[in-house]
Amino acid sequence: MKHEWHQKVAGYYEYVLNIMMILIGIVIFGFLIREIWNLAQMLSIKNISGHFTELAEQILIVFLFFEFLGIGREYFVKDAHISTDNFLYIGVTAIVRAMLVYHDQTYKTLMLAAAIFLLISAQAIYRYFRPKYRS
């Protein structure tokens, strides 16, 4: 009885959090549609070979939005639990996109490659040491 109001507050908080996640998902979906439209316009250009870097960057942006939508889906499917794996995948994708932007600066490219190595190493260590759950 003493902690009953805590449960009510937690219930309201969860309700607001779920509504905000739905709204964020709708906004991200809108941005995904916009980026797919931009990608389609870019693909309609006759000389695509001259715009390879921009095209690759646009494709990676679309992948980032797919990853964010996947995180939103996972939030609801796994009862408000989001795996660390997804954040590491998004980090690697974002850094690869940044490498496309800074490909002419050797030092920045080397640092971004080191960051990718660090994220992949963290992913391997995380998978090795995480507890194994039996179904």
TrEMBL record:
Keywords: Cell membrane, Membrane, Transmembrane, Transmembrane helix. It is a multi-pass membrane protein. The keyword Iron-sulfur does not apply. It comes from the Bacteria. The chain crosses the membrane at residues 12-33, 55-75, 109-129. GO terms for cellular component: plasma membrane. It holds the Pfam family PsiE. It is found in: Cell inner membrane. Its main location: membrane. One of its GO terms (biological process) is cellular response to phosphate starvation. Belongs to the PsiE family. This is Protein PsiE.
